[in-house]
Amino acid sequence: MRVGMTLPVMEPALDRAVLERWTRSIDEGPWSSVCFGERICFDNPETLTLLGAVGAWTRRVRVVTTVVVPQLHDPVHLAKALATGDLLCDGRLTVGFGVGGRTEDYRAVGADPATRTIGEMAERIGVMRRVWAGEDVTGGRLPVGPPPVQPGGPELLIGTLGPKTVRAAAAWADGLAGMSLDLDLAQMSALFDRARSAWAEAARPAPRLTTSFWFALTETVSGADPRRQVGEHLRRYMNWMPTELVDGLVPVAGFAGPVEELREVLDRIAELGTDEVQLVPTSADPRQVELVAEVLR
Q1: What is the pTM assigned to this prediction?
Q2: In angstroms, rounded to a whole number, what is the distance separating the alpha carbons of residues 297 and 157?
């Protein structure tokens, strides 16, 4: 099983130096991917702009968006942006797609919240695939380019927790961009089994199975409480949810503890047949990357 690392894009007070240090450290370490997600009504970096920088700062790891919401973008323009990202990272781009859970993001960009459906997402992805294939979808004098480095476009994953989404996505996705809220391995295994069955029923190649979870390490800051760190992160990140719901999740969310125990958790997830785990930091302290890298080597 491979292990990727997510950039701390949802942490406050980021600057170029922090993002570049994290990205280069991941690219130079034992990591398989560098990941980052999309939000609109938040102070995180804009995802497609960051994609260009990460492509330029890396040479080895895959670059993974977890996840982009197609309904927040014009599909032709999004196809062009992602093809450009694939060009800049020399064919190392993987795109996670999802419908998103925040109506405020739809309204912020003038998108209709009624389009927050799996069917609408699939329709837009179909347009993007046509763009990447070089088809004329605009009536212009030339097709929309540049062509992606990866033939047919980048690897596409579906960000989901639900069985209906898994079945619907089997027709077009290459695999799952999963997220475990509470590290319930039985639930994770069941999702993977559903995906394997859905892809087989759709006569598709076996799906790529990835998952992710939040983490905080005892060793990162002397005397710090890692569970408290997870809580502070979630209360900030999940600001669209009622506080009492977030507080109920904090005691069980992700992983909080010593790095050696994190290695044991990763081993158990690997036993499920997982292709890749992507760790999600709950602070911008770059020592997290170095500490986990030591147990991965």
Answers
A1: 0.95
A2: 27
